Structures are given as structure tokens and as C-alpha cells.
Amino acid sequence: MIVSPKLEERLGGYQYMQLLRQYRYSILPDNNPAVIRVRAVMKRLIAAAGLPDVDWEIHVVNDPREAPNAFVLPGGKVFVFSSILPICQDDDGLATVLSHETAHQIARHIGEKLSQTPFYLFGSLLLQVLLGSSMDFSALVSILLEMPASRQMESEADYIGLLMMSKACFDPRKAVDFWARMQKAESIQPMEFLSTHPSSSTRIQQIKEWLPKAIQTREMSDCYTTTNNFMDAFAFMR
Fold first, then answer.
1. Among 14, 33, 130, 157, which one has the highest count of C-beta atoms within 10 angstroms of its own C-beta?
2. Do 28 and 34 contact (CB within 8 A), yes or no?
3. What is the CA angle 176-179-180, rounded to 5?
């Protein structure tokens, strides 16, 4: 890692301001039921992740032109596009998405990608020198190095997120159902080795392999008491 957390947060802050301007007419108000729901789920995940001191800002964007998506910028800036909510269906599905995106921040994947970029550029230039060619090898380096690394980060975020949502007393088994629905919703399914993300079928297979540990994590949490406390807090917020 050659990028500091401070730099990540600063870059995230710039992007955050740009997104606020871009979606200023599409961001739902705080009293919207979708916003209340997303914030309630995030509150449980933040507690499970041990990140209460982050300056969290949570926004739901209602823009029908946007594909189903959600992401968390460095510094705790959360954006959820309303088009993903029907695919989530319930709080467990929403927790699957939000825990995955929060896990990217825990693992500092943005900083990792920024740190790797100079090496990818160097690799492309090195191939040009060694082969004595003017050809641009950046696409080859991307397929052989950058995309596999990105898929690994996505799988890591799936794993961390699955344990996080389990610790927060969501049902990790519902993560399988979410990715099955996402697979049906995907209009185009590119070949995995040409993608920065694992295929939905790969994700489902991996999550099934991780489920025993996730279920054990949930059982070790005091979920009955915790869930009741969260329900009481949610009722108070409403």
C-alpha cells in the first residue's frame, strides 16, 4: 500500500461532492421510507463492523436511468440506487449489498487499487521495451493482472460482508437468494475472465462454501436480544 487512508478519504470527499451535485434532484429526503430502511440496516452493519466514529452520510438516489447499484466511498459516504431495492426484496438482501460495499472500505480496496496502478503501467511499458514493439499492452496487462486482482477483492468483500451481516444478526443464507435474483436481473453476463467482478454463479458457489462459518458467527452473536433492541430503536426513530 503506497496510498495513505487520509488520501483515500480526501479523494472520496472530492467524489462525494461531485455525486451530490450530479444527483441533487434525485436524492430522496431523510423521511422517505426507503431512506429510513437503508439507514436502519446500515446502523446495524456499522455497529457490527466497529466503525461508529466514521462520518457516515447515507443517500438513496431515485433515478430510473441508473442501473441497480450501491457503493460506499472512503469516509463513509453511502449511495444506494433505488433500482436495486426490488432485487434486495428485504432487509437481509439489502444487508447483503451494503455489507459487501462496507467491506470494501474495511479492506481498503480503493487504496489497494490506487497502489497497484503504477505497477500495471510499468508492466505495460516493460512489455513494450522487451518486445521492441510500439503496441499498447495495457489491455493484456489488465486481463492478466488487473482484472484477476479486482475479482479477488470482490470475493474478499463478499466474504467479509457475509460475516459482517451475520454478526449484525441478518440471515447470511439470504445472500445466496439475493445473488440468484441478481443473476436473473443481469441482461448481459460477460465472460468472467474479462470482468472486474466474479460472475453471480461464482459468488453463489463461494457464499455457499462460507455459509457454515457465517451461520456460526451469527449463532455466536446475541441475535435475539440484539434484534429486539434494533427493532425498538427503529420504532423510536419512526
1. 157
2. yes
3. 85
CA distance 209 to 98: 21
Please report, as a single letter, which amino acid is at residue 104: H
Q: Give the model confidence (pLDDT) of 45-98 as tens digits.
A: 999 988 877 899 999 999 988 989 999 999 999 999 999 999 999 999 999 999
Instruction: Tell me the three cell numbers of residue 91.
Output: 432487509
Cell, residue 72 = 460506499
**Contacts for 185 with CB less than 8 Å, ≥ 6 apart:** 68, 87
Report DSSP letters for 64-99, one per residue: TTSPS-EEEETTTEEEEEGGGHHHH-SHHHHHHHHH
Report CA-CA distances (Å) from 132 to 41, 44, 118, 129.
55, 56, 21, 5
Q: Spell out the residues 6+ positions from residue 181 whose beta carbon is closer than 8 angstroms to its own.
A: 87, 89, 93
Radius of gyration of the chain (CA): 19
Q: Which are the catalytic amino acids?
A: 101
Contact 59, 71 (CB under 8 A): no
Grade residue 125 by pLDDT with cuts at 50, 70 and 90: confident
